[in-house]
Amino acid sequence: MMALFRFRPVALTAAGLLLIAGLVLSAVYFWSPQATLRITTGLPGSAAHRFVGSFAKVLTGQHPRVRFDFFPVGSLVDSAQAMESGKVDLALVRSDVSPPTNGRTIAIMRRDVVAIFLPDGSPIDDVSKLAGKTVAIPQGPTQDNNSRALDAILSYFDIAPDKVKRVFLPIDEIGPAVHRKHASAALAVGPIGPGDAVNVAASIFRATKAAPDLLAIDQADAIVKRFPGFESIDVPEGAFKGKPPTPDDSTTCLAVTYRLVVPETMLNVVAGLIGRAVLNTKEKLMAADPLATQIETPDADDTSPVLPIHPGFSAYLSSGDQSLLDSLQQYLYVIGIPASLLGSLGALGWSRWRNRKLMDVEQQAYQLLVIADAARRADTVELERLEDELDELIRNCVNHMTAGTADVSQAPITTLAIDHARRAIERRRKDLAATPPPQSPGITEEAPPIPS
């Protein structure tokens, strides 16, 4: 029992060391200066590919211990699927193109207007009047995505997609196609600024010698409720052409957004740090890629179910760096408790195992003392049995020592008990050898004959 009480400080020390180790490992995990982020890239030569390259270059320049693993994808759909399947940590996706259900927004990289341009004087003044017409769409990597965006808009007006013909043309040919009546309208998805929408408006102006009109979608808010990948946007006068202006007045349209997203399972502190890095490097990004001028901070109060803001970045936007410290403390607390419990359980298990070894030593010593005590009264046959039992105990002790399952610190006690038992057996054997065997009853020793 005294050995057990003496052992308790050792167990408590072990538990404390395990708890400290758990906290140290947690700190190393969260404050590790190394980080590798897997990010999707678009097709070589595409705007997405150029932007991701610039983004990675600027961010690694600011944070040399951050590195990127590029994950090439062939389309916006592939990028969304890579995020959905957990193959990447960052992805550039479009809000209306198969948005990943597990995606959470870190930054809005660009907001593109879904612009439907009409030649000056066109009788089309509502989306429903596109039925039976031909719409020209710029050729390019996103032409199918843009065509499906038109399908969604048409479906709101109960117009089947096959009722509106599409022709995919280089931007420079869209203006002439509209001028020759080969297309009644042109659809371009692009930002308010350099991009497809501005270029299509310019192409129509050059061919028709008149500023094109922008078709208003007064039902934009209702369409957004049905298709939350869209947004309602008021396009200001002259957004796509200055003089004469296109549009000639503020016009309600639909828009889609390109977003940098992370998985919803990403730790809040990591998401917050990534968002913080994007905001802090925006000026350098603008110098490296003009697209960075359109980077926006997502609205923390946005209730859209499609690609909501990551809670870690939302906390950073509302509380700044303090939110990151709070997240670190929370994670340390959450991990510290299990680490403490595991340390305590480990110490308890080790203590029980150690106590079991001590009990085995005490049991062996007790058996050896029993053998020594029994040897004092044993006859020759019993003594042989006791010696065999002693040999078996010695064999077990040696096997435990060889296997490392014996408590080496208790070896002197076992050795002393073995020596005591062996001496008792040897003394008893000498005593039995010195004592003549008893005679059988009724047998008398004959007197030697008397010599004659």
From TrEMBL:
The keyword Coiled coil applies. The keyword Coiled coil applies. SUPFAM superfamilies: Periplasmic binding protein-like II (SSF53850). Residues 376-403 form a coiled coil. It comes from the Bacteria. Pfam families: NMT1_3 (PF16868). Keywords: Coiled coil. Residues 427-452 are annotated as: Disordered. PANTHER family: SLL1037 PROTEIN (PTHR42941). This is C4-dicarboxylate ABC transporter substrate-binding protein. It comes from Rhodoblastus acidophilus.
